[in-house]
Specification:
about 160 residues, alpha/beta, Collagenase (Catalytic Domain)
Length: about 160
């Protein structure tokens, strides 16, 4: 039996007006799966939305007002320091959740951070994916670990972390 070149499946939906390469974002999500050692049978959804939509999600699910760059909605309680579940071959794949990104917000943020839009979008995908996999930045130590992991993954694909 041949294993797929990249583990996992990425579902992608673009519901906004910025020019973004979904192929590049999906490929990056697969790199995160591989880097984090996820099993072949794993799924994630990347959803690009406008600022009004992400502001609604931010308020409704996070209790924060206004738009933001990225939101992650995990479906599993994962811990990056624990073994990841290996889905039953006869059952459904492991769906880790949804990453929602507002590219217009990210574009302004890239300008403010003296970064490129492409690097900033890549960071949002990696950041959101790591949140789905249990990474967090609640403490300074957690933030340093997460930022180092983001930088390692982004470097692997020729992007930089601001």
């Amino acid at each position: 039996m041949t294993k797929p070149l990249h583990p996992g499946t990425v579902y992608y939906a673009d519901e906004q007006d910025e020019d973004v390469s979904g192929v590049d974002l999906a490929a990056l999500a697969l790199v995160v799966f591989r880097h984090e050692g996820l099993p072949d049978r794993v799924e994630v959804t990347l959803l690009l939305v406008d600022e009004e939509t992400i502001a609604t999600y931010n308020d409704r699910f996070m209790g924060r007002e206004g738009p933001t760059d990225v939101l992650a909605f995990p479906l599993e309680e994962l811990d990056p320091d624990d073994d990841l579940p290996d889905p039953d071959p006869a059952g459904p794949p492991l769906n880790v959740g949804d990453v929602v990104i507002a590219p217009s917000y990210v574009r302004r943020q890239a300008l403010d951070q003296a970064s490129t839009f492409e690097d900033e979008m890549a960071l949002m995908v990696v950041h959101g994916m790591l949140h789905l996999l249990g990474w967090d930045h609640a403490t300074d130590e957690d933030a340093e670990r997460m930022e180092a992991q983001e930088a390692a993954i982004l470097t692997r694909v020729g992007r930089r972390r601001r």
